[in-house]
Every structure is written in structure tokens, then in C-alpha cells.
Amino acid sequence: RKYLNYSEATRNKVEASDMQAALMVDTRDASEAYTDLVEIIRIAGRLAIILGFTLHKNPGSWFILILMPTLMMGWVRLRGQVYLDACNKEGAEQLEVVKFVHRTCESYTIIAEYMQRPQTNELFYKTLIAATKKGRIPKEQIETNNKYFPKWLGPLFVGIYIATTAERVVDRTVTIGTFMATVSVLRSIAGDFGDIYKVLMRYNVLYAPVVTLVDLFNRPTDVREGKEVNRARRVLTKAERAQAAGNVGSVTDDCIPIKLVDMTLRWRPDHEPEFSNLSISVPQGTCVAVMSNETGGGRSTLLKLIGQKFQPTSGSIFIPTHLRVLHVSQHPLMIDGPVYNNLVFGARDCPRERVYQILEDMEMMLSLENVKTQDPDEVDEVGEVDEFGETPVDRWQNSFPYSELAKIHLARAFIMSPEVCVLQRPLCHFSASHTTSMVMQIIMSMVKGRGVRLPLESLHRRRPRTCFLTVEEDWQAQMADEIWTLGKHHIQVTKLQHS
């Protein structure tokens, strides 16, 4: 849940392998740390009782009974940090191996296409060897050296006690029973110390996962910033609603424009701003094609700002609070599961007939056939994994052409039907002009019809649909209601009239 609320900058700094290690390993180790703490308290309590009883019965042995645990705890303090550093080093090296595997899996296509598989195997071998030499071997050396300390310290102190107390037993100033009991106590202290030493070393190691989890739990999120932005938008929405008080009901809300107010975006304080003091407004129910006269002109960045992926450095982007905003990325994104689950991901209660109609409009015959043959009662069932590591409901992702996946990506947005739809280069995946024109016409029908394939009788009760998109060619932009041509300090607006 915390990860889902991370800010965009924070999420970009946290790799998938970090979250995997935190969820699968660190949480387990953190719970074990609590168990070890309870075990430490149990052993320490037992030692305190034994020492107290022995000192009461044999006060003359106080020096050796106190000195032995003191030396042992001093050893723990001296070697504990060394062992902790070695464990942290091993953990860091192991994480580097996991990250290498993640990056290799994500980059497999380019590795295979550029014939770099032998080189990648060699790099993996070097990474694994480095992790063993720098992490595992030093840690095991320290573990071996440390574990023998309590084993020889106990017999040493027993021998010292026998040498110093045997004469007192002979002259009967110390009874043989007290003498033997004290020897047994010293052996018990050595044994208990060996146990507590192991637990303390393990506890030191398990402290690091707690630190990692605390760090991940306290990374910056955009929740507070989102709340502040939402509060400001509520105030502005209320003011805009009052300004449009000439109308009543939902019509008043429909008259509130979407605005950029003195918006400035600067990636770093010492960098030139991406945008500076941009101000513009557009009425709801408008399709806006965003263009730029140069590469890297900020089209994608502006749409991410409107799509609320992140906030401007100063100024504001005002979208009335009652409007849902959906940002649709350029590259098709799929979830695990059947085609139908992907299509209705944002609108689970959408009637199946409406889904079929949208698929027909977008000429998605592969998807339509797949959805119609899928049992509606089994759309959430995964099925068994086959010999290729795939389930029946996921296999379609490898068999569908890329253009069909791109259409599913867009159809999902049309099915959800948000009031504000932000589309990043929705037409770039289609080479045929017929397909490009068809998709653009559906986008315009979404704006004009206040949704795609929604009942005409409820048209006047639905809120307007506004769409911002980036296009590939001028003729595509000409199909929109407005064209925004971006500059650093201004936006040139071209209003288009359609018959």
C-alpha cells in the first residue's frame, strides 16, 4: 500500500528487486528479530537468577562470576559490529545479484537481438563470484572465528576457579557441594553465553531488515501533496461554480473550465524551466491535440502534468474535483489474466454488450472472439501453468499482435469513460491510415457523445468528456476541436470548426 502511494520520483528510485526483497525476506527477518529479542530476555533472566543464587551461597566467587559475563559481553560488543558489517556487505552483494537478474530479464529482447547472451552469462558469473568473494566468504570467516570464543572461555574460567578455590575446599572453608555447584554454574554461564551470543549475532543481522523497512515506509509519498492540491481545487471549484451561478444543477458544473494558471515546471533549481508561467483554459467537452514545433518540446511532460502524474513547481493545473482524470501511457500495459479482465479493469460493472460494441467499433476481432468464448463465470480463474510457464488466460498476450494490444490499451480507457482522458501518442502504434482515422474518430465520438457506446437517452445527464492527446501528423490534429502548439512561455491555440 505504501508503494502505491509513493510519489513519482520516489517510485523511480525504488527498484522491483528492492520491493521483492522487502516483502519476501525483510518482513520475515523483522518478525524473527522480535522472537530473538524475547529469547535474549529469557536467557538473560535465567543468567541473572543463577548468578544471584550462586553469589548468595558462595560470595567468595563474585570476581570470577562477574568477570566472565563481562568479558563475554565485551567480546559481543567488540565483534558484533564487525559481524554486522560483514552481514550487511553480504546482503548488499546478494541484492546486486538479484538486481542483475531483474535487469537481464527486463532487457532480454535487446540482449538476444544484439547477440549478447554469452557476454551476459559472463557478466552474471563475474557478479556471482564477486558476491561470494566480497560478501559470503568474509562473513563465514568471522562466524568461524567468533563461535569458538565462548567454547574456550568457559573451560578457561572453570580452570581458573578450580586452581584458586581447590585449596579452600581442602581446608574446608568452602564445601565440596558449593564448589561443585559453582563449577556447574560457570559451565552453565558459558553454555548460556554461547546461546545468547548466537542470538545476539543473529539479532544484529536482523536489525538491518528493520532499518530497510523503516526506510521504505518513510519514503516520500504524494498523499499529503495530493490532499493539499485537492483542497485547493475544492476551493477553486466552489468559486468557479458560484461564478457560473446563472445555470443550475449539473449544468453549472459542466460550465467550469479546465485551467493552467501561471504553471511553471523546473526539474532542478539550477536548470532552465521546462515551462514558465503558462496560463490557458479550455471548456469541458473539448478534444485538444497537443503539438510542438521541435523534438523534446514538452508534449509528453505537459500531458503527464494534466494527467496528475506529478505536480508543477509553481502555479497550478485546475481540474474540477468532481471530474475523474485518467492518464493513458504511450506503451500498452497489460495485467495478468484474460482479455476481458484487461478490458474492464477500470469498470468492472460495465455491461458485456457494451464491451462487445466497442471492440467491434475498433475492429478488434481477435479480442472479440476471445472475450465471447470466455465463460463469464470464469474470467477471474487463472488455470494451471503449462510447460512454458504460462497459464491459459495469459497465453493470449504472446499470441496477439502488438497493434491488438495497443487497441486493448485504448479500449480499456473508452470502457472506463473518464470525464478527462489524457492519451499519450495513442495513434503511434498503427501504420494504416484507415486504423489511425478510425481510432481518432472514436476519440472524437467519446468527446461529442459524452462517452463511447453509452445510451443516448442519458446523454443530457452525463458529464462532458474532455480529451488531451498528442498526435503524429497534422491531419490527425485537424480532427480535434483545438490544437495547442507548445512553447516554453506560451501555448498557441488554434480553434477548429467542424461541420
Mean pLDDT: 83
Order of helices and strands: HHHHHHHHHEEEHEEHHHHHEHEHEE
Helix/strand class: alpha/beta
Runs with pLDDT <50, length 5+? none
What share of the residues lie within helices? 55-70%
Return Rg in Å: 34 Å
Count the E strands: 9
Tally of alpha and pi helices: 17
Distance between the termini: 49 Å
Strand content: 5-15%
Assembly state of the chains shown: single chain
Q: How do the strands of the widest beta sheet line up side by side?
A: 5-6-7-3-8-9
Sheet with the most strands?
6 strands, mixed
State the shape: elongated
Structure at a glance:
The protein is 59% helix and 10% strand. It is α/β, with parallel strands linked by helices.
Describe this structure in words.
By secondary structure, the protein is α/β, with parallel strands linked by helices. It has 17 helices and 9 strands. Helix 2 (16-57) runs antiparallel to helix 7. The protein is elongated and about 120 Å long. The two termini are 49 Å apart.
